[in-house]
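Justification of computing resources. Each target in the renewal requires a structure prediction run like the one illustrated here; the chain below, 217 residues long, is used simply to show the kind of job we budget for.
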Amino acid sequence: MTDRLIFVSCGQLRPEERRLGQRIKSEIDATPGFKAYFADTVQSLSGLSAHILDALRRSSGAVIVLHPRGEIRGDDGRVLGIRSSVWINQEVALLAYRQFSEGRAIPVLAFQESSVTLEGAMTAFIINPKPTVDEDTVLAEVRRWLAEEASSGAGDETDVFQAKWDALHDDDRSILAALIAEGGPTSKSKARAAGLSVSIASRETERPRFFEIGRQS
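Resulting structure tokens:
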């Protein structure tokens, strides 16, 4: 089974924030069945946005840490609260949209510095954030969450397909590739005419039951 990808969204403005994000990533990577994405480890500036968007699309869960960034003021100048990173707010909004559009829950573990005010999508997507960013407390809670809750998230469908594809024999891949290349509504009948009506799933003694081609209707 492929590892579940956990998106780590943590501030990187200060050294202590980057260190916390890196330690969370290391904790997740050290846990069997999980791997972490933390943007601090991406070196290509040109590909940074693409990397982040792809990781948000593929992630099975998220660990979010909200550090203070600035004051939120009303039209009268009155301080309404303290905001967190705009970047992290955008990542949370994308995860919230994914959860809505896919119709399935994305497990989230969130921490916030006590002064931070939740805004926008965060108020609906983040439930009961832990009011601390203390490193030892955060890491202990991450370990508990990975053991008890994180596995409820759906696995990465791209990785699942790749694992199944890799498990096939070469002749099975060739047949699938030929059908895909031919395409169109007549591909099934052409495959039968060419003697390619093969039930891969029926070869139970040879390989796992992943696909069945040319099934008689």
